[in-house]
Amino acid sequence: MRPALSSPAPLSQCCARKQLGYNGKKVGRSQLYLSVNEMSQKITCQVQPRYGTEVFTIFSIFCTSGKEDLSYEFSYQVGDLSRKMLYKGRDIQYYFNLPSGDPGSGYQVTVFTQITNAFGSQTQPCPLNVTVHPVVSRNTSNTLSEVELFQEGLRNLSMLVLMGNHVEIRNYVVLLTTILNRLYTEDNKTTLEQQLQIRNELISIVHSLPFNNQDEFTDIVEMLKDLFNATNQRELETFH
Question: How many CA atoms lie within 13 A of 161 on its CB side?
């Protein structure tokens, strides 16, 4: 998928005019021209592949514009859940995993790209849809077991913790939390004890994440809220 990001012309001018007066009489007019730098129209982004499975498929997003002074913000959204940040920086390419999409929309996940130039001008968030199927679902057959899924997920997360990449750790915790919350709401609580143990592991990892500004601190608080809110907090405390 290669949608172009629509935006205004690269450079425009606006004019401010003011009447000049003295003792109530008009004596002249001043005029000021301001050059406003806007986004280039020649920006295309693509997400690959178009289809995949949660946790196991590695997706990539790539943007090309020929400019070196641009900042990229990549995020995703599943159904009515809040949008989750993936990356914010100057890299034009990013690799990531996704949770499964909403069954009601054919398991669709929307990946957003927003680009900012050196002058602060931004594109509108550009949506790109991919299809991400669950590997664990109580409503379908021939899927992976929860045990296998979370064993794989925790192995991957342990590697990220050893590497010390805090952005990737955050993204993977959010991914596993989204899957845990989905399974918890599917009414069958046969593996509740296992889910609670995994939540406790994720909570411990989140507590150890550093933060350098208010936004990063807010992200950590939201991650903890997502981990606690889906279940009864007392149930979690019994496993501490």
Answer: 15
